[in-house]
Write a structure and sequence with these properties.
The chain contains six helices and no strands. It is mostly helical. Helix 1 runs antiparallel to helix 3, helix 1 packs antiparallel against helix 6 and helix 5 packs across helix 6. The longest helix has 31 residues. The N and C termini lie close together (9 Å).
Length: 128
């Protein structure tokens, strides 16, 4: 495995692409049911506060964790990178009818090719 910093530096943009694809996919679904979202600011507030988007929080939290590790100038313990990588590997396992994130993730993969492509990019980074 590369250095923990290098691993995190590769993981972060892949997670950001996937998160963006998931938010956009979920926005489209939300608008079909709830009505049009009129601005990026409104979308941000919904992603942060609305229960419709709560399932995306583990992805956001993982990105924040990586950012915090990359923002420190101290060398990373190899466990830091390994822990984050293990968390990503366990999080991004789609499961129909599974618990919480896994089920929503499965549904997003079924409905949106952009999510599938971002998932494939992420898998190339986190593959064992």
């Amino acid at each position: 495995m590369d250095s923990p910093r290098a691993t995190l530096a590769l993981l972060r943009p892949a997670l950001l692409r996937l998160h963006k694809a998931l938010v956009e996919s979920e926005r489209i679904t939300y608008e079909r049911v709830q009505g049009r979202i009129t601005s990026k600011g409104e979308l941000l507030q919904l992603v942060i506060h609305d229960s419709w988007f709560v399932w995306l929080r583990p992805v956001s939290e993982l990105i924040v964790r990586i950012d915090e590790l990359l923002d420190t100038e101290e060398p990373h313990d190899s466990d830091d990178g390994s822990d984050v990588l293990a968390e990503a590997r366990s999080l991004f396992v789609p499961a129909p009818g599974g618990p919480g994130f896994a089920s929503h993730y499965f549904e997003a993969l079924q409905r949106d090719p952009a999510v599938v492509l971002a998932h494939a990019d992420l898998m190339r980074v986190i593959a064992p």
